Amino acid sequence: LHFSFLVVKTTSNRNPTDKMSLSAKDKNTVKAFWANVVGMEEDIGCDAVSRMLTVYPQTKIYFSHWKDLSPGSAPVRKHGATVMTAVTDAVSKIDDLTGGLLSLSELHAFTLRVDPANFKVLAHNLLVVLAIVFPNDFTPEVHVAMDKFLAAVARALSEKYR
Amino acid sequence: MVAWTDFERATIKDIFSKIDYEHIVLFLCLCLIVYPWTQRYFAGFGNLYNAAAITSNPKVAAHGKVVMQGLEKAVKNMDNIKATFTELSTLHSEKLQVDPDNFMLLGDCLAIVVAAQLGKDFTPEVHAAFQKFLAVVVSSLRRQYY
């Protein structure tokens, strides 16, 4: 009855790029849209991380070493900038995310040990911010391409986990 | 029973009073575009071939309104969403046979459309209240499944 969902939800050992991989059109859409983000990375990243911590408070556990976890605080802003720099880098490596994000994957797997389910959470909050900041450019077509791209980034980050 | 703060109650009612109902139905179009497997539930809706077809499809728009009416019912009964949605949950489980994981996909699409409409007013705190509301709605709709 739900065969299509089994295909979507199964974790397999096949090459991750088999699963809903980015088409040429997706990649071009992402690259074109991301040009809008240049210069706004810090503000967008800050807002996305602020929302993640506020809307999904379970994510705070990864930042218990920060003095201030409130929206827009200095450590939140700094981390937002860090994340966005990495996402911009991922856009430039869109043709080989697994290879390009190898060291980041090792960092998340062995040092940070972030539960990979949280990648989706941060991605959703980033999409919310993009919808607010770019109400005209963030069309449904851009949304689906960005959603796929962020899912691909998440998969690449999860590569080294086990 | 869900515990709502005063802020959350006021925020949910405020959001629903502010959204542009003419265009909010885009959230269902978005779900069908971004998560195309959800189209399986709308086989009788005609042309869903691409984003343009989906966004101009009158059946999708009409159904978006139906879903919004369901949400408004939840807003009017915030202290008893579970009971309010018992029949709807049974309907989705037994008759429509919708995979309940899809409910949050649709919810996330609605959050994004509301965010785009409210802009800066959709602060992290407002956003949190809204996603909590959506989580309660989703949980209530899942309730009658096996």
Mean pLDDT of chain B: 94
Low-pLDDT runs of chain A: 1-18
CATH-defined fold name of chain B: Globin-like
**What's the CATH first level of chain A?**
Mainly Alpha
The CATH topology assignment of chain A is: Globin-like
Morphology of chain A: globular
Order of helices and strands of chain A: HHHHHHHH
Domain Globin (chain A): 21-162
GO molecular function (chain A): haptoglobin binding; heme binding; metal ion binding; organic acid binding; oxygen binding; oxygen carrier activity; peroxidase activity
GO biological process, one term (chain A): hydrogen peroxide catabolic process
Protein name (chain A): Hemoglobin subunit alpha-2-like
List keywords for this structure.
heterodimer, A: 162 residues, mainly alpha, Globin-like, 8 helices, globular, disordered N terminus, B: 146 residues, 9 helices, 69% helix, 0% strand, Globin/Proto (chain A), heme binding (chain A), oxygen transport (chain A), metal ion binding (chain A), oxygen carrier activity (chain A)
